[in-house]
Amino acid sequence: MAHVRQQIRAAVVLALQPIGVNVYAGRALPLSGPSKPPALAVYTWPDAPNYEEAEMADGVCVLSHDLTVNIEGHYEGGTDDDLDALAVQVEQALYADETLGGLAQGIRLAGQDAARDGAGQLIVGAVVMSYTVQYLAAEGDPETAL
Amino acid sequence: MAATRTRGCKGVVYIKDLAASGAATQVFGVSQWQTVEAADEDEASEIGNCEKIFIPGAVETNLTLNLWWDPGAGANQSPLAISNEIEFEIYPGGATSGQTVYSSPTGGAVVLNVDRQGGNEGAVASVIQLKVNGRLSESVVP
């Protein structure tokens, strides 16, 4: 088993793979060589427990977590239209199963932004798509999504 | 000496239909509970004494349950229907041995208000208000 956050990250990667570009979980390395753009990188921070939406469960506290899932879409030489097309595919892929295989209660849109890096030989456009994934887990049992 | 704190989220509420046989079972999705015990004030003032005197009158007990709405049978919320009579047990710190439990009297409690609330943000919730037919009893889980 793994932290629910890790399971959700893996589920998001799985959900995005049909898009047909490289998809990485928490990638810290540059996107170059065989892993060059177009590519998607999935990051899952921060993870904020929400005690206002907790549930009493007989000696344990079942917490609702708001997990920020940032998906960076990189597109070599991409225009805004390319980035928006990628954003469409990502959103459609995620909302095909809002529970991410039963791990989550739902997904909320949390904003999108774009960046462009033209310092190198290639211009790489990036779109950062933020989602809030709500999941339930008991205190002391971070590996089990409820 | 500081008072010991009991974390509210470790509590649990059991309910069952008053007419049903068997023991009460856990109701799932409880986010908050509240009991209010209030005595009537019966005035016992006498002429010649310019200070009012009161003695406690009948006691009224109310229970409010805040729930995350779940109409599925597994959540055991269905006994909390309008006009229904139920039995309940409230364990503020969980149902383990040594914990305190507040139980409904033989007459149970009547569900008098059922509010359901939903919005664009957050989960759908219910607020259930009950009047208790008698006094709560307090005991310790064996």
Q: What report would you give on this structure?
A:
The complex is a heterodimer of chains A (146) and B (142). In chain A, strands 1, 2, 3, 4, 5 and 6 form a six-stranded mixed beta sheet that branches. Chain A is built from two helices and six strands, in the order H-E-E-E-E-H-E-E. Chain A has 146 residues and is an alpha+beta fold. Chain A is elongated, with a radius of gyration of 17 Å. With 142 residues, chain B is mostly beta strands. Helix content of chain B is 0%, strand content 49%. Chain B has strands spanning 12-17, 25-26, 30-43, 54-68, 85-91, 100-103, 109-117, 125-132, 137-140. Chain B starts with 11 loop residues before the first strand and ends with a strand. The chains are: A alpha+beta (146), B mainly beta (142). Chains A and B meet through strand 3 and strand 4 of A and strand 3 of B.
**Nearest-integer average pLDDT of chain B:** 96
Which geometry of chain B do the CA atoms define?
globular
Instruction: Please give the most extensive interface between any two protein chains, plus how many residues each contributes.
Output: A-B, 14 and 21 residues
Estimated share of beta-strand residues of chain B: over 45%
Q: Which word captures the global form of chain A? A: elongated
List the secondary-structure elements of chain B in sequence, H or E: EEEEEEEEE
> Sheet with the most strands of chain A?
6 strands, mixed
Average predicted confidence as pLDDT of chain A = 90
Radius of gyration of chain A: 17 Å
Oligomer: heterodimer
Number of strands of chain A: 6
